[in-house]
Design brief:
It is built from nine helices and 25 strands. It is of the alpha+beta class and about 425 residues long.
């Protein structure tokens, strides 16, 4: 059964964690005992409606604040896929964490709030647009739009059609998703309507005959894997164990892993040996291939040299480690002008670093990507350009043409995404 890494994204309070939690409960991935415990604790805090979300929002701070802060990871089997569910935070303060989930995704579930005013707020100044743009920039080509809270609008067909038209136009025109790769599914997580089976409410059933959410997930085309290419695994998280061992977590983007294999850990350049592998959270395995989300336990290495934002790679083909990069970027709609010297947050796979624009080499034609103007003074919203950035410290990076996952970048400033793009050239590789 093929693996599918599914990122759940969308504006805060759209119901992402509730949709995910309810789906996991219906699939038996959350026990009734655990659900009862969550319900009891949520009610005691006056947050009864958060019980399903707590299946993924497990930290004390997340539960106290009532928002997702980190990417929650859960697993379930559909009819077609072994699904790795990446529940991403929707609050604007935690977009950098959301980017970490986007970097691992094969496909996306964009949850929007169908109630009047809430959908519009997510589109106008919220994270619906920003998350959609980020997820597309990180190579995701297939997306389900889950229009949640349809019970609040009385399962109105007119409301669903209005949202479907608005979000569909944005995704195909602004984010450049193919129309055939966008699927809109109306549902109500709290009322258990259209999650695992067809709607039972007559107001809903009278006009909707499309797939339920569970079946829509199986409509995704299998993602292409690069198992034959050299090993590349960006490190998402690290847990230091005893006896000189350390476990690195992440999605294997290219190549294969097996017990006993020597790997190089960048940026330190040190060699380590794979002692054990785990897949799907806790299942031991002897090999892993591109697309698998794995925990790799290493031995024979300085545990302090293995860190989130690093990369496991082939010992003979170390990934580049650089401060000075050439990028091709596009400024989103409504972005502030970008000037030479502009300070930025630079995001690539699971690494984040301060950066500065040192050169705007050329303005590019949006359709042909040919040079339209050399050395413009600044960049404006919706423009595409070739720029050079210098980072405060080096990061592991690969040209996009060689590896999509390690070549996609996001540039942020003042809590907003100001540009999305790709690495086109590594100018100054750190030694």
């Amino acid at each position: 059964m093929a693996q599918l890494n599914l990122a759940v994204v969308g504006h805060v309070d759209s119901g992402k964690s509730t949709v995910s939690g309810k789906l996991l409960l219906l699939l038996g991935q959350v026990s009734n005992k655990e659900m009862h415990k969550n319900e009891k604790e949520a009610k005691s805090q006056g947050k009864g409606s958060f019980a399903y979300a707590w299946a993924l929002d497990e930290s004390t701070e997340e539960r106290e604040r009532g928002i997702t802060m980190n990417v929650g990871v859960k697993y379930f089997d559909s009819k077609k896929y072994k699904v790795v569910l990446l529940d991403s935070p929707g609050h604007k303060d935690f977009v950098p964490n959301m980017i970490s989930g986007a970097a691992q995704a094969d496909a996306a579930l964009l949850v929007v709030d169908g109630s009047h005013g809430a959908f519009e707020a997510g589109m106008k100044g919220g994270q619906t647009k920003e998350h959609s743009q980020i997820i597309k920039s990180f190579g995701v080509k297939q997306i389900i739009v889950a229009v949640n809270k349809m019970d609040v609008v009385g399962y109105s067909k007119d409301r669903f059609d209005e949202i479907k038209d608005t979000i569909g136009t944005f995704l195909t025109r602004s984010c450049r998703f193919e129309k055939s790769s966008v699927c809109c599914v109306p549902l109500s997580a709290m009322d258990n309507q259209n999650l695992m089976s067809a709607p039972s409410d007559d107001r809903f059933l009278s006009w909707y005959s499309g797939p339920c959410l569970f079946d829509a997930i199986d409509s995704f085309q299998p993602p292409k894997r690069e198992s034959e290419k050299p090993l590349l695994m960006p490190i998402c998280d690290v847990i230091k164990a005893s006896k000189g061992q350390v476990s690195a977590y992440g999605k294997l983007q290219a190549g294969t892993l097996r017990n006993g294999l020597k790997v190089r850990v960048m940026p330190s350049g040190e060699l380590g040996t794979i002692r054990s592998l785990e897949r799907d959270g806790s299942q031991s395995c002897s090999t892993a291939t591109a697309g698998d989300s794995v925990a790799v336990t290493l031995q024979g290495i300085d545990v302090h040299q293995v860190m989130a934002g690093g990369v496991l790679c082939d010992p003979d083909l170390p990934v580049a480690f650089a401060r000075h990069l050439e990028l091709r970027v596009q400024l989103p709609d409504g972005a502030q002008p970008m000037l030479i010297g502009s300070p930025l947050e630079f995001h690539i796979h699971h690494a984040k670093e301060g950066a500065r624009v040192v050169k705007i080499a050329a303005l590019l034609d949006r359709k042909t990507l040919q040079v339209a103007k050399r050395l413009p003074r600044c960049l404006l919203a919706n423009q595409v350009a070739a720029v050079e950035v210098v980072l405060q410290r080096p990061v592991c990076a690969v040209e996009f043409s060689k590896c999509r996952a390690l070549g996609n970048v996001s540039l942020r400033a003042s809590g907003k995404t100001v540009a999305l793009g790709t690495v086109t050239r590594i100018i100054d590789e750190a030694k």
